Amino acid sequence: MINSIQNHRSIRQYQNKKLENGILEQILLAATKASNTGNMQIYSIIVTQDTEKKQKLWENHFKQDMVNQAPVVLTFCADINRFSKWCKASGAEPAYDNFLWFYNATIDAVLASQNAALEAEENGLGICYLGTTTYMADKIIDILELPNGVIPVTSIVIGYPAEKPELTDRLPLEAVVHYEKYQDYEEDSVKELYEVKENLESMKQFAKENGKEKLAQVFTDVRYKKDDNRFFSTKFLDIVKKQGFFNH
After folding, report:
1. Does the pLDDT value for residue 207 go beyond 70?
2. DSSP for 214-231?
């Protein structure tokens, strides 16, 4: 497992090959073993293998080909619906339709997704997270017929890799780890922490391809622009409210 963690890479090209018998169930079982809030498991996992259903997801995941190529798409949802119904059926009054429990359920769903990803990679499969899940949450809710109290928070595609990309760079430990208290960053120190990343030939080329002088400008001006951030933030918040959260 340590080897799988150290050699993680996002796979975006997949072989036209179904998962071997038993592997999917093994992956799902691993997901359910993840840490979670109060052992309540306030998440659900939607497994999509049907070609037509994947096509609909593909259309709403910004038409990324890996959604169609991979034999399995897993959508991890924050879910207070199931637990609340169990409470009511047991004569207990639930109060989970609020921001705190949306947050808790989101954490549960993401932890489960990482367990699934690790188990998949341990079995020689490739995975890739789909950040488009929250951007297009309203459409995904319709496609997967998610009831009130259930919201998609992340998705992963799983399959046999048809590529082996280079390992993606990561910031050094000192950039993300703080001992005893948060050590804030001065301009010089933060520049130093990102210096190696910025000087990678692949990152220089990435900036050039996007018509930018600095790597950071690609993120602010091209990939995650202010107007887009505000639009999708407002949209997702409206979806969360519509699905029954933030009532209290």
Report:
1. yes
2. SHHHHIIIIIS-HHHHHH
